[in-house]
Design a protein that fits this description.
With 141 residues, the protein is of the alpha/beta class. 43% of the residues lie in helices and 27% in strands. It has a six-stranded mixed sheet, sandwiched between helices. 33% of the residues are buried. Belongs to the YqgF HJR family.
Length: 141
């Protein structure tokens, strides 16, 4: 069992949620949501977070439909974001199917804090947690 630190991103055109996790525990914690302008974040903000946490690997949620098929507009943009992360920071990046991560994140947040917990930033970061914990689960299968 390794103890890598993994950072995950839930890519969106207006907001990009992030989470951090430890491979040894298989758990993740929400970090922050980065505002994005037409899918482009402030890269300096992401760089600060990467420098602070020093992850060994980045995981980006790959949006697909319920059948796992690529979505016409958002799937290629999420892949481009993943490629840019790799290009800018030189870290390995993996894509991970994020089907239903937003619905699961909303349900978890609602159970913890009702409607007040359902802010866009909270949802995006909790989605990143769901993506990362799902990635961990796939590792151990």
């Amino acid at each position: 069992m390794t103890s890598r630190t993994i950072m995950a991103f839930d890519y969106g055109t207006k907001s990009i949620g992030s989470a951090i996790g430890q491979e040894i525990t298989g758990t993740a914690t929400p970090l922050k949501a980065f505002k994005a302008k037409d899918g482009i974040p402030n890269w300096d903000d992401i760089e600060k977070q990467i420098k602070e946490w020093q992850p060994d690997l980045l995981v980006v949620g790959l949006p697909t439909d319920l059948h796992g098929q690529a979505l016409e507009t958002i799937t290629p943009r999420a892949k481009k974001f993943a490629n840019r992360l790799h290009g800018r920071f030189g870290l390995p990046v993996e894509l991970h199917d994020e089907r239903l991560s937003t619905a699961e994140a909303k349900a978890e947040l609602f159970s913890m804090g009702g409607y007040k917990a359902l802010s866009k930033g909270n949802i995006d970061c909790q989605s990143a947690v769901v993506i990362l914990e799902s990635w961990f689960e796939n590792l151990y299968r």
